[in-house]
# Entry
Amino acid sequence: MTEKIERLLQRVEEFSPRSAAELEEFRIRILGRKGELNDIMEEFKGVAPELKRELGQRINKLKTRAQERISELKGELESRTAEEGGTIDDMTRPGDCQPLGSRHPISLVRNEICGIFERLGYTVAEGPEIEDDWHVFSALNFPPEHPARDMQDTFFIEKNPDILLRTHTSSIQVRTMETHKPPIRVVCPGRVFRNEAISYRAHCIFHQIEGLYIDENVSFADMKQSLLYFVREFFGEDTKIRLRPSYFPFTEPSAEMDISCNLCGGKGCNVCKHTGWLEIMGCGMVDPNVLEACGIDSNKYSGFAFGMGVERCSMLKYGVKDLRLYFENDVRFLHQFDTAI
Ligand code: PHE
# Structure
């Protein structure tokens, strides 16, 4: 009888079911009312009294171990099916929803602005964020000691005055002129860096889109018409523009372009500081010195350039009051743009 008990114990230890059904079958065969353990109990009734103590202990041990082993195997089977993807017990249960991400408002606005110019025949050009002095300043007619360099507080890399973070994406326009022959029509989106104090209206990192159009006989009137088309597409059909004389080393003449305030319709409000106008970009005719520095014949070709801040355009279009929101990535802010564009 001892042998019988030990053999059964060994079978219990070695049993390895492939499915829950197989395990259940095994459980009934061993522990069930008419199972093998029961047979042993029946046989136990007839053993000699002096053997009862020892055999009784063995049978008890077998029973506890069999129960233990069966629940161990059950646990193993469950975790194995969960790993393999589990079994579907309720086909009507809704699936797990994967929340969809959305584009950042800066990307949305950048894509929209580039799209408008692409429809006018412009292509998109990009360039490095770490630049050299030539592409950011010198080729753009900033003489070495010219006070215009102070207009843009620059981050230099490792105290080397030649290597810096670009302060505007005009550097991409220089690279385009150096490598392409006119006619040139490009828009240059990108991140730019200026050493400025961070506030609701300024940040040391922001995004720009600049544009460049070079061909024979390009005039100031062409620029005005292109920019008017752009603002009407972006801010709405009724938008008006106004050009004020300004100064940039790389354009002559230069202008600052304002649009009629789309919030108060020009009547005057807090956003336009009661002027009815909002400043949105700098522009002008490319200075002949810049064309020559980039290897373009300034007697044959002329062109215009413009540049605007993407955050500013987005703030004006969507009524965002604090520029810092674009960098904080608070999903309560970002979710408001889920369905935009
Ligand atoms: N580069 C100027 C800036 O960063 C913008 C600009 C571009 C102005 C082209 C005129 C012409 O402010």
